[in-house]
Design goal:
Elements (H helix, E strand, L loop, with lengths): L4 H31 L2 H27 L14 H30 L7 H28 L2 H28 L5 H28 L6 H12 L6 E10 L2 E11 L4 H18 L3 E11 L1
Parallel strand pairs: 2-3
Antiparallel strand pairs: 1-2
Length: about 290
Amino acid sequence: MKYSECLKCGQSSPRWSFFGNTLAALFKVLVGTLTGSKGLVADGVHSAADAMSSLFILVALKVADKPHDEKHPYGYGKIEYFSTLCASTFLFAGAGSIFVDALRTFKEGVHDMPGNAALLATVISLCFSYLMYISNYCAGTQLSSPAMLADANESKADSITSVAVLLGLIGAKMGYPNADTIAAVIVSLFIFNMSVEMFLQGISGLIDMSADQDVVDEIVAATLKIEGLAGIKSIKTRKMGQKSWVDLQIAVSKSLTVLEVHVIAEKVRETVLTDVEGVSGIAVATYPVD
């Protein structure tokens, strides 16, 4: 974590994201309906799905922050990956609704010319979505939170789809009535792709994805500083949401006493937990060598 303020920002960012996406959804759907913009309504549905996923992420972050207990010795961090799966499901359903509505519009041949207010509303939504993306991405990166990063990606996608809607509205004003509906199709396809990527990320986290290589390197460097250590036999890590768990096997001389080996193992455990940021727990096993 780069700054101490990042923790406070990370705690408030999910709440602002939920309220922001809710207001954005209501604003886009209302203006899109009044102005006859299919693309803006589609973007509003996207924001509604973002709001639901932000709610799941907000609850998940509360649960993930609980300390480990007897039934959950590794903690509750993996709930963040479950929230990512739920968010991807909402996005997929929202994309399907947008896509079906756009196909029906093409079939029926209804092409109402969007009002001028839709252009202004889209620009406002674009700026708002991008600001939320910057906030969530900064907090998610500094706290190494997969849930916050998923929320940031949704805000980024929201801003990109707003660009597509804006281009569609401009095309409609230039005499291409299908442009707005085409923009809605592009939005739905983009959301489909993003929801699949998020789903795969959630699955990857639930099946014990290893920590980043730089974290592993920090663990190795911190461990090798311990006096009396003969080397590292093996190291395995698993990501538990914002934190990681480490299974470490160290090599020690077989001439050492049981007490001396225990002291070395405890020093390794304390050093890694103190010096390496993002490690929630570590299990240290010893292996005797000549």
